[in-house]
Amino acid sequence: MNRPARRDGTPDRSSSNDKRKTAPRQGPRRSPSEAPPRNNTPKLSNAKPARTQNVPVRDPDDRAPSNPGGDGEKIRLQKVLAQAGVASRRVAEEMIADGRVEVDGAIVTEQGLRVDPSVAVVRVDGVRVVVNESLVHLALNKPRGWHSTMSDDMGRPCVGDIVAERVAAGQRLFHVGRLDADTEGLLLVTNDGELAHRLMHPSYEVPKTYLAWVNGEVQRNLGKKLRDGVELEDGPAKVDRFSVLEASEGKSMVRIVLHEGRKHIVRRLLAEVGHPVQRLVRTHVGTVALGDQRPGSLRVLGRDEVESLYKAVGM
């Protein structure tokens, strides 16, 4: 059949009878709302940042030059202090001149001293200042039912799910101690292994504070009994402080402060004195507080909080 010619004399191939062949569609048709398979990747439904993040806003011109080779580039001490949020460079210079700054155990008074922030231990007025920007210090509000592990062979929700994106980005993180699955609240997460070790070790006596909702109305003498010590199956245990916050209708809410780190220590102590725990929340590690942080959220610790942790363990 002859095709009609166009004005330029070429055959017209746009006839309605000329159907183009298309490649066959591969695989089953999927509706637009149907999501592709996820290959068993962990669901990060709770990995949300806390509303308040203690991330200092810095002048771009005040940042240390990048050092991809990891050679430990040295930077002027006053600039390091400014980057750490201690003070402006001018005020940092005054601090140095007044002998208030210490580097690796020695007082520094000369201006322009260069230090390697990745290894230097810097103190101002005896308090350590974190100048290594690669260090990570986070507060996590662990939800009830989540496990204090970085992975779980049974597929149960765990701390590792919440920090998975940070780990995937190359951060090697440790959770400081554990909270059992039924216990909620503050869990510190860091990549400073020595700090994590010291915070967990009972010899440094870093206090942890808990709120516990228990069965029964607590008697007045219970606090003294817990402070004096209670015999458990693995030895005596005692609290540092104890107070009753509420008591009514056969239930009580109490606050417990202790530096013991044995497994289920708070639950076992209260069960031993006749008040089984119905709900348990850790609210403080040292002076770092959970506050109103949402369950499942992460918060970057502020400079004062980080310094208080180093001071508590003598670093």
What would you note in describing this structure?
- The protein is built from eight helices and 18 strands.
- Helix 1 crosses helix 2 (89-97).
- The chain is an alpha+beta fold and 315 residues long.
- Strands 1, 8, 9, 10, 11, 14, 15, 16, 17 and 18 form a ten-stranded mixed beta sheet that branches. A four-stranded antiparallel beta sheet has the order 4-3-6-7.
- It has helices at residues 77-83, 89-97, 159-162, 164-168, 193-200, 222-228, 265-272, 303-312, and strands spanning 48-49, 75-76, 101-103, 106-108, 114-115, 122-124, 127-129, 137-142, 174-175, 183-190, 208-215, 230-232, 235-237, 241-248, 251-258, 277-285, 288-289, 297-300.
- The longest helix is centred in the last third of the chain and has 10 residues, at 303-312.
Per-chain topology:
Layout: E1 48-49, E2 75-76, H1 77-83, H2 89-97, E3 101-103, E4 106-108, E5 114-115, E6 122-124, E7 127-129, E8 137-142, H3 159-162, H4 164-168, E9 174-175, E10 183-190, H5 193-200, E11 208-215, H6 222-228, E12 230-232, E13 235-237, E14 241-248, E15 251-258, H7 265-272, E16 277-285, E17 288-289, E18 297-300, H8 303-312
Parallel strand pairs: 1-18, 10-16
Antiparallel strand pairs: 2-5, 3-4, 3-6, 6-7, 8-10, 8-18, 9-10, 11-15, 11-16, 12-13, 14-15, 16-17
List descriptors:
315 residues, alpha+beta, 18% helix, 25% strand, elongated
